[in-house]
Amino acid sequence: MDKMKGDDMETTLEPLFYMWKTQRTNADEALGDFLQRMGKDKINEYRDSYATGTAFKNVKVEKTKAPMLMGSLGLNSKASSKSRKSSGPRKQQIRVTDQISAMLKSKAEGAGVPVSDIVEDILMSSLSK
């Protein structure tokens, strides 16, 4: 799925949100992280087999946590006062193994910053040598 019409938004997004809710690794896994981990083929396969309305059967409302704000902006109370090593918007995503992803998430949680800040620190340190 690359594009959708506005009239198809509900029927297009319902299976994606339900897939995320039922198959994410934990309640803290962001939608974008989940979709990237699953990959386009699995998402399309799930969407094609999804029965409309499934998400509304046996609805269970989950407690939500406050969203993690960008640590690099100093908006997260847990975040360090250290600023990003580079400037400007982040434009690209990278793919890593599940093992590396878990290590990055763990390090980010421990530092109270987004994973993107950890990746940026590692890359800037390595590339500036």
Provide an overview of this structure.
By secondary structure, the protein is mainly alpha-helical. The protein has two domains: 1-65, 2-Layer Sandwich (Sulfite Reductase Hemoprotein, domain 1); 69-129, no CATH class. The chain has five helices and no strands. It starts with 8 loop residues before the first helix and ends with a helix. The model is unreliable at 69-81 (pLDDT under 50).
Secondary-structure-based class equals: mainly alpha
Distance between the ends:
41 Å
Which runs of at least 5 residues are low in confidence (pLDDT < 50)? 69-81
**How many β-strand runs?**
0
Mean pLDDT: 79
CATH class category label of the largest domain: Alpha Beta
Which architecture of the largest domain would the CATH scheme give at its second level?
A: 2-Layer Sandwich
Per DSSP, what share of the residues sits in E-state strands of 2 or more residues? under 5%
Helix content: 40-55%
Major sheet description: none
Cα-atom radius of gyration: 18 Å
Helix count? 5
Order of helices and strands: HHHHH
Net shape: elongated
The CATH homologous superfamily of the largest domain is called Sulfite Reductase Hemoprotein, domain 1
**CATH-defined fold name of the largest domain:** Sulfite Reductase Hemoprotein, domain 1
Whole-number total of structural domains? 2
